[in-house]
Amino acid sequence: MLSKLVKLLTGDKTIPEPPVEIATKPKKQKQSRSAKSAKDLANERNEPYIAIISIDLDPDNIGAGAFELDWNDRFLAQLVRSGYQLKPNEPENVIVDRWFQQVCRNVVLETYEQEQADPEARRIVKRNLGSGRSEIS
To answer: Which of 2-11, 62-71, 74-83 has the lowest mean pLDDT?
Structure first.
């Protein structure tokens, strides 16, 4: 399901959302002082920008976690124009969170619809490889 979310955020045209750049972890490359971030470049081009800065998963409950997002004013303005702001003076993070939740819902609904259409397509096969190892496909 995470791959569907990434696909959706990286430009799946089925949902009219702005292009999205995904970065699961901050890059640790040394940057020269003149190098500009993707956000800076988007701001210079007056384009919307949204990125996943980090994903934190609970090792004891893999289904629980959090995403850290970064965005620019142009992306926020696009969300406001698209109706994601429900109250005047609503905090930015609430508007972006509402959008992100909608994206996640769309991924879940698409997966559910596909499973209902073809329940055999999602069959999990486990094969014992010996030595305490298994292959799951």
So the answer is: 2-11
DSSP state, 95?
Answer: H
* Domain parsing of the chain, residue ranges: 2-136
- 102: burial class by Cβ within 10 Å (0-12, 13-18, 19+)? middle
Tokens of 101: 């939740």
- Look up the pTM and report it: 0.61
- Spatial distance between the Cα atoms of 92 and 94, rounded to a whole number of angstroms: 5
Torsion over CA of 110, 42, 75 and 49, rounded to 10 degrees? 40
Between CA 21 and CA 39 the distance in angstroms is 9
3-state secondary structure 16-78: CCCCCEECCCCCCCCCCCCCCCHHHHHHHCCCCCEEEEEEEEECCEEEEEEEEEEECHHHHHH
Look up tokens 């609904």; give the residue.
Answer: 109
